[in-house]
Design goal:
single chain, alpha+beta
Length: 186
C-alpha cells in the first residue's frame, strides 16, 4: 500500500495558526502557501524593491516538521509545482537569519545558491537593519534558486561595491550554466 500524498497550494491565512505556533517570525500575510506532510512554505513577491516583482518570488516562511530530509523533499515538490504551474517565475529568493540559528544548511542541501548582499559582507555603519531605531538586526544571508534562465539575474545579484568585489571575488554571485531547462553550478 502506498502512502497518500498530501500537498497543496493554500491561502496564507489557512496556515497562520501553524506558523504562529511553529515559526520564529509567526504567520505571513501575503503570497500563497504550500502545505504538505513535511510542513509549510510561504511564497510571495520579493520584499526588496531592487528585485523584480513580475518574475521572482521570495520564500518568506519555511517551517518544517523535523522529519529527515523534509526540506529537500518539500522543496523538490515546490520546485516541480512552480515549473509546471508558474512559467512566469524565473527565480526564488530567500534569506537565512544566522542570529536565529539558521546557517543556510537547508538551502545548501536543497540546491540553492548563495548570493550575498553587501550588508552581509560589510555591515553598514549606521543603524542599518533596525526597524525601530534601537534594536539592530544582523544581516541575513541571501539564497537564490534559479528556475529558468533570467538575463538580469546576475546583474541584479551582483555586489554593488568595487572594493568588496576585488577583496572577495569568490563571494560574487555567478549565474549557473544552463543546459536546456536545467542548470549546473559553475
Amino acid at each position: 500500500m502506498t502512502a497518500t500524498l498530501f500537498a497543496e497550494v493554500v491561502p496564507v491565512w489557512s496556515v497562520a495558526e501553524y506558523l504562529d505556533a511553529n515559526h520564529y517570525l509567526g504567520s505571513a500575510t501575503r503570497g500563497f502557501a504550500w502545505s504538505d506532510e513535511f510542513g509549510v512554505a510561504v511564497l510571495a513577491s520579493p520584499t526588496s524593491r531592487h528585485l523584480p516583482h513580475d518574475r521572482w518570488l521570495e520564500l518568506s516562511r519555511w517551517c518544517l516538521t523535523g522529519e529527515p530530509n523534509a526540506g529537500s523533499r518539500q522543496w523538490a515538490r515546490i520546485r516541480r509545482y512552480l515549473h509546471e504551474h508558474r512559467p512566469d517565475v524565473t527565480t526564488v529568493v530567500s534569506y537565512s537569519d544566522r542570529s536565529a540559528g539558521h546557517s543556510g544548511a537547508l538551502y545548501k542541501a536543497s540546491g540553492w545558491i548563495a548570493a550575498p548582499t553587501w550588508h552581509a559582507l560589510r555591515p553598514p555603519p549606521s543603524g542599518g537593519g533596525s526597524w525601530d531605531g534601537v534594536t539592530k538586526q544582523e544581516p541575513k544571508d541571501r539564497w537564490v534558486f534559479p528556475l529558468r534562465h533570467d538575463a538580469d539575474r546576475e546583474r541584479l545579484l551582483a555586489i554593488q561595491d568595487d572594493a568588496l568585489r576585488r577583496k572577495m571575488p569568490e563571494r560574487e554571485y555567478r549565474e549557473p550554466t544552463w543546459r536546456g531547462k536545467r542548470w549546473s553550478a559553475a
